[in-house]
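Lab notebook, bench 4. The sequencing result for the construct came back, and we need a structural model before the next group meeting so we can plan mutations. Quick request posted to the team channel:

Model the 3D structure of this chain.
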Amino acid sequence: MRLAQRARNALWWRAAAHHARVAAAPTGQAVYGPRLPDDTTVHSVLDLALRIGEVQLASGAGAADVTATMLAVTNAYGLPRCEVDVIFTSITVCCHRGTEAAPVTSVRVVRSRSHDYTRLASVERLVRQITAGHVTAAEAHVELDRLTTAAHPYPRWVATTAWAGMAAGVAALLGGGPVLALIAAAVTALIDRVGRILNRRALPFFFQQAVGGALATGIALGLHATGLLPAHVRPSLVVAAGIVVLLSGLSLVGAVQDAITGFNVTAAGRAMELTLMSAGLVTGVVLALRAGVALGARVSITDPLPAMPSDLPLMVAAGAATSACFALASYATPRALLVAGAAGAAGLATYGALTVLGADVVIASAAAATLVGFCGGLVARRLRVPPLVVAVSGITPLLPGLTTYRGLSQLVVGNDAGAGLSTLLVALGIALALAAGVVLGEYLAQPVRTGLGRLERRLAGPRLSGPLRPARRPLE
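Done. Here's the predicted structure in token form:
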């Protein structure tokens, strides 16, 4: 009896302990992940980050810059578990809210792109205030509305004059005199006004580039055939100046930066766009050359003049003027104009010195662009100027306008396919060397903190826009 009583007591205590454990256990599923604000705040912060990324992407910033900036904004407002995906003209941001709530995903498409470096600088200043905790999300929305709806800081005729001044600087850089510089400026001003009219009529940019290339080449050949150009003026330099102006608006630096930083889909999209825009320019130039040959115009294939030490002061001055004019045409701030001019002067000084010493043009271009990116990365952020402005403006005088025209002339006029393709490959090599050199220079100039995860390192550099430091994100 005693043994049976003990067994019953043991079973009773065991059942009681089991029921106590069941009663003490939580009735719901365990919740993992951060405690986030309410839905209204989450949607507001994501919309703010998307609109900031849209301004950057529309201004030519790389996908890595856009990603890091948006992560910094979302992290500053208490959304640390966010992921950003930039694919060419589409931006997607997703906020993970643990297992308690469904994630929130927002998408924005960049439908129009234009260079307004004043707007870019203002948005970056707003981002610095956000990451420093000086403005609330509501205040940031109001300020961003004001920035995105504001008119350009300069009238449109100022931009046209700046494009003309840029063409004059390129003509002087290539060895042309005052008469050639004035002709190049007038032709470029006409191209800009015609392009504006075509843009109002929503003509695709491929055809706008073709019209620009045809105008630059056709006017130069027409003036030369009618004897209106002085004997010492080379019409090829007028065409080369126009080609540089038309090439300067393409997002070459952004495409190479995306490829280097691992955003291959965006890089492929930008590369395709670059190819299409360049093909439009080539089409216009080739059509004008063939029309000139058919009409009996004498088209000469101009070789570049050898660089001499005595030409260095003029090259430096012309490079500074060209870069400053490009920045002005892109609506940069007055401070950015000075920095861009200094970058152009430094780049041309390096390029000129290396070519005088006999260096290859591709190597000289890469070295000059690396110096521009390095100096821009060091100086631009101290002066509150986006490094993207300095980088793009600084390499503009080095764009291969004359080399491109020589290659096309050899193909069309000289009927020398081998020489023409070789020259065009040199032009392509110069363009890629310029873009890669700028990205490398910015990477060398940026202090990357140790102890970060691989994702943080990838988002930290090279950076041409947005906050220098990546957001502090706990990595999985």
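Residues 39-151 form one domain.
Will bring this to the meeting.
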